[in-house]
Fold these 2 entries.
Entry 1:
Amino acid sequence: MKLEVAFSPVGLHPDDVRGRTVFVIDILRATTAMCAALHHGAKALIPVASTEEALRLAQTIGSDDLLLAGEKNCVRIPGFALGNSPLEMTEGAVRGKTIVVTTTNGTKALLAAQGARAVYLACAGNLSLAGERARELLEQDGDILILCAGREGAFGLEDAYCAGRLAQAALGGRRARRALNDAAVASLDLVRRYGDRWERPLARSGAGRELIRLGFKADVLDAARLDAYPVLPHFHERRVTLASQLVS
Amino acid sequence: MKLEVAFSPVGLHPDDVRGRTVFVIDILRATTAMCAALHHGAKALIPVASTEEALRLAQTIGSDDLLLAGEKNCVRIPGFALGNSPLEMTEGAVRGKTIVVTTTNGTKALLAAQGARAVYLACAGNLSLAGERARELLEQDGDILILCAGREGAFGLEDAYCAGRLAQAALGGRRARRALNDAAVASLDLVRRYGDRWERPLARSGAGRELIRLGFKADVLDAARLDAYPVLPHFHERRVTLASQLVS
């Protein structure tokens, strides 16, 4: 059995993900916002690496049902309909829409996971569902990788804590020390340290402090709401959709 | 004040180290072995990136007082006088010698720190001295970076724990949450988790388990000995020497 955590997509090689199941975490705020959007009826999200690519793609698709969303340094990109806040992803704003999203770190992590057999998105908002799927897959395949977006290529406390919560759920009480890489051990150590209070690691993280400083405290609190957006998103053929849609 | 930790040199840009003081940690085993060598009278160590470079440099220098040391995947490189074990760095073997060293992760971290204003080496073996210097520098300049070698570009539990111990020493009891980046917070969390018993995080880490599996358990135990090699090495002009030699 192998349960690995990567604290950042930097340094990850295509071979590290090939054929595996990857859970991507960017709790502040990309994966939380994507869960919120799908929970409120968005059709799909298309993560792209830059503002330019988002504009180009929007022109190519040219549909009325398309929205642009994204942030640069936490702030909504000028001209875009939405930022990267889960609180903006209301039913009124997103139902039936396809959303082209560009974010600083989350998109990079999703793109780094391309080539995996399956890519799921996780955050506090969908932890129980993601944890259930992670446990099933760990039992079935004996292998999962939890990939944190981190922050500008470096370690992010908020994602590492969330990785620990997901690893804990995937293990389901089993002791499997040999199955864990060092980052998985440390992320479980963080869960032991912070307990089940999501607010503490989120507000203590650099990303959380920066969001609070910029007036997005409500986003940090929203991202800390366990199972607030109970959906399981899947990243497949460059789109994030509900994973169950693939089965139906 | 700024006290930052980087869990790996991967993704570190020259701008991240320029003008700063960096403490490099590769406790299993490069920085421990280097402290052992200098403590036992070696003149200098020259870290290089590959076996080929080590051989080329040895030919160029062509001195009888030169030794080759290094490992690849934990095992001594064939034809080299020494491996990467602190226990090999006895006074009989190293006194008066200059040692060209190539190691998998430690050398990469040292080379990534080139361009810093000053680069020190740290491990359990010299923690008190390194911690004292780190505290002085943090008071004087208000800034240090602790750079972990990690393992193949990824997070290593043993180095992260050691980084936490060094950060704790540098802070000297001060609370300075705003000064810490997320990796520094997490490394201090690991110290809280494992207490002062070096053996636990070292033996639990992937690097430690691999060394034990290959028959190097004595090295892991040696690397866990607090202040066993009380020297403060400095990396300057491509050489690792005793820092005090620069002053004298």
Note: The radius of gyration of chain A is 17 Å.
Entry 2:
Amino acid sequence: MLPTPKRFTLVAGSGEGNTPLTAFDSALLNAGAGNLNLIKVSSILPPQAQYDPNLSIPPGSIVPTAFGAISSSKPGEIITAAVAVGIPEEDTFGVIMEHSGHYPKDEIEKQIKNMVMEASSFRGIPLREIKIAAAEQKVKSCASVFAGLLLWY
Amino acid sequence: MLPTPKRFTLVAGSGEGNTPLTAFDSALLNAGAGNLNLIKVSSILPPQAQYDPNLSIPPGSIVPTAFGAISSSKPGEIITAAVAVGIPEEDTFGVIMEHSGHYPKDEIEKQIKNMVMEASSFRGIPLREIKIAAAEQKVKSCASVFAGLLLWY
Amino acid sequence: MLPTPKRFTLVAGSGEGNTPLTAFDSALLNAGAGNLNLIKVSSILPPQAQYDPNLSIPPGSIVPTAFGAISSSKPGEIITAAVAVGIPEEDTFGVIMEHSGHYPKDEIEKQIKNMVMEASSFRGIPLREIKIAAAEQKVKSCASVFAGLLLWY
């Protein structure tokens, strides 16, 4: 089997580029995740995974990641992305949610908090804490925002 | 290399939520795949992989999965998702197909069966059997359907 | 952790099918990647990864892949997909870019080259070479094009 991650961190960033994909790349770099091979996962914090805000991952590593991202080429437009995880009170897994859109940052943070609470209540998991990372950008020419929860070992 | 899966199961489910992503989460839970980290694969049943309808996978595991899903916020709308795999007559790999849309369940099952037959004929693989999982939901407020083939070890 | 890939190849292909997904499957087969379980990565060539144009990967393997793809059901339409990687002068990682659209093949190759140069300049990585794979197809009935950089071990 593929090994289950043991540590995690949350990152977010924004960037501009000449194209939507290079803007996305720039946002990844700004978030500190630009030199990794992110693979998208749906979206569970494994039991006992430890929060490590200083996670250092070698370039080119394959990193399971729950993320939200959005790009825009409309100057002046607001774009935001957020990721959040519900840390359970007890020793069990947690639920991760990701979101993106044209909301202000405080609004998307409120929305994603509600999403984590809804998904945790589906499972009857009482939460000790909700961790959030979000990024907001006003588009200059072509921009992207990214928010991700990186799972690592 | 990443280990090649040895077992598989097919699941499908539907659910409602306050947002498209929590509705998707609810559909995953209904399908029995809500507490996993699904990673999307394109879409081959490895040689000798065994069907195991009672596959039990620990929460937070990273699970290679071929899946189709669709969400809708239009009350009354029908949404369906299906996944199917062609089990080869001989001891070789099989092809997995996924599909989603606004078809009735029996219609999407017919379509996905044809897709598996087409993809198997591309490769000249005679089929012994086609396994299908599908879910249909009439949207109440915000709903999602999911059908996936989970690959495991 | 998931093992970091050590070898890579670039492939591209096109195909027709009765549905967008079987057309995509046909394009994968044409590219020589049809019998694999591709998982999408964002998009770094690991340090010291070796180019191997004759990479032979067993069917059903889980293969980290950066790819672009597009399907169309409009007869006569041109569709193209491209992938490119910047090979660094020095012994470090490289950046992979993918792209798709309705451009002629020489046009998308120019665009993706620029994307790789932009992403490499973000990181201050001088390039020794850019490798590109691209596919172009004029749609007959329902077609797909695919270009991918397969990472392997």
Note: The radius of gyration of chain B is 15 Å.
